[in-house]
Amino acid sequence: MKMLRGKKLSCASVLLCSVAVAAPQAMVAQNHVVSPGDIQNDVSKASAARQQNQKQVQDFLSSQEAQRAMKSAKIDPQQVTSAVSQLNDAELASLAARSAKAQKDFAAGNIDNHDLLLILVGLAALILIIVAVH
């Protein structure tokens, strides 16, 4: 019985060694799916997009209309402006898109001062709520 078990063990060992030797080199030492250069490019693009979105929101909030709207709603403009940097990338991208649309609509005359006031106060309140929840 012990001899049979020993033969099975030695057969299994030989089989395992032959599979390891026959395995292709790529299977033994796998290459990374994403190169470090690709990762660096993705990080750079994400950082640039975040900076652009942050600038868009900051420019919108620093406009005279926005400053007046926040002051009339008794919202501290400095608090809202500083809270923008605490937003995550998705929240910041969403707010940047909304602020860009509001600026274009206002410049095109599609919305009036009252509508812009409501949008600004809504965005400022949204920013403060998001930061407070985090």
Helicity level:
over 70%
Which spans have pLDDT < 50 for at least 5 consecutive residues?
none
* Helix-strand makeup class: mainly alpha
Q: Main sheet?
A: none
- Overall 3D form: elongated
Task: Report on this structure.
The protein has 134 residues and is mainly alpha-helical. It has helices at 2-22, 25-28, 36-61, 64-72, 77-83, 89-108, 113-133. The chain has a domain at 47-134. It is 81% helix and 0% strand. Helix 4 (64-72) crosses helix 7 (113-133), helix 5 crosses helix 7 and helix 6 packs antiparallel against helix 7 (113-133). The longest helix has 26 residues, at 36-61.
Keywords:
134 residues; mainly alpha
Please provide a brief summary of the model:
By secondary structure, this protein is mainly alpha-helical. The chain has seven helices and no strands. The protein is elongated, with a radius of gyration of 30 Å.
Task: Please outline the helices and strands.
Elements: H1 2-22, H2 25-28, H3 36-61, H4 64-72, H5 77-83, H6 89-108, H7 113-133
Helix pairs in contact: 3-6, 4-7, 5-7, 6-7
